[in-house]
C-alpha cells in the first residue's frame, strides 16, 4: 500500500495559527468563533464525504470535498486543504485507490486538527 505522505509533500502545517490570525486582522474572538463553527460543521461534512465514497456517488464526494477544501482554507488548515485537493484530483481521474489513501490521511489529519483547534478554544 502506498502512503500518501510518501507520495506527496504534505509538509504544510495542520493549522497555521499565525496565517489565520493575520487574515482576520488579529481578532482572537473571531478566530475562536470561526473555529467553533468549523468544529460544529465539519463532522457532518465528513460523514457526507464518507457516505458518498461508500455509495460510489462522485457528485456527493466532489461537493463535500470542495466544501471541505474551502472550509480548511478559511481557517488556514493547510494540510486538510491540500488533502482535500488531492481527493478532488483523484476523483477527476476516477482513481479509487488513491481516493481511499487520501481519505485515510484526511481522517488522521482531521483528528489532529480537531485536537489543535480545541486547544486554541481553551486559551
Number of helices: 6
Give the CATH topology: Four Helix Bundle (Hemerythrin (Met), subunit A)
- What is the CATH superfamily? HPT domain
Q: Roughly how many Å is the radius of gyration? A: 14 Å
CATH architecture: Up-down Bundle
Sketch the topology as an H/E string, one letter per element.
HHHHHH
Q: Give the low-confidence spans.
A: 1-8
Q: Oligomeric status of the shown chains? A: single chain
Report the portion of residues in β strands: under 5%
DSSP strand count: 0
Q: Mean pLDDT across all residues, rounded?
A: 89
CATH class: Mainly Alpha
Q: Count the domains.
A: 1
Major sheet, described briefly?
none
The assigned structural class equals mainly alpha
Distance between the termini: 40 Å
- Binned, the helix content reads over 70%
Shape: elongated
Model description:
The chain is mainly alpha-helical and 123 residues long. The chain contains 6 helices and no strands. The chain has one domain: HPT domain (Four Helix Bundle (Hemerythrin (Met), subunit A)). The chain starts with a helix and ends with a helix. Helix content is 80%, strand content 0%.
Amino acid at each position: 500500500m502506498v502512503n500518501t505522505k510518501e507520495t506527496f509533500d504534505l509538509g504544510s502545517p495542520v493549522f497555521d495559527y499565525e496565517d489565520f490570525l493575520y487574515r482576520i486582522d488579529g481578532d482572537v474572538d473571531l478566530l475562536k468563533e470561526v473555529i467553533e463553527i468549523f468544529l460544529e460543521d465539519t463532522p457532518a461534512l465528513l460523514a457526507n464525504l464518507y457516505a458518498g465514497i461508500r455509495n460510489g456517488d462522485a457528485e456527493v464526494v466532489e461537493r463535500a470535498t470542495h466544501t471541505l477544501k474551502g472550509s480548511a482554507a478559511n481557517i488556514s488548515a493547510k494540510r486538510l486543504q491540500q488533502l482535500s485537493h488531492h481527493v478532488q484530483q483523484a476523483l477527476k481521474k476516477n482513481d479509487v485507490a488513491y481516493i481511499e489513501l487520501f481519505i485515510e490521511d484526511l481522517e488522521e489529519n482531521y483528528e489532529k486538527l480537531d485536537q489543535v483547534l480545541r486547544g486554541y478554544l481553551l486559551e
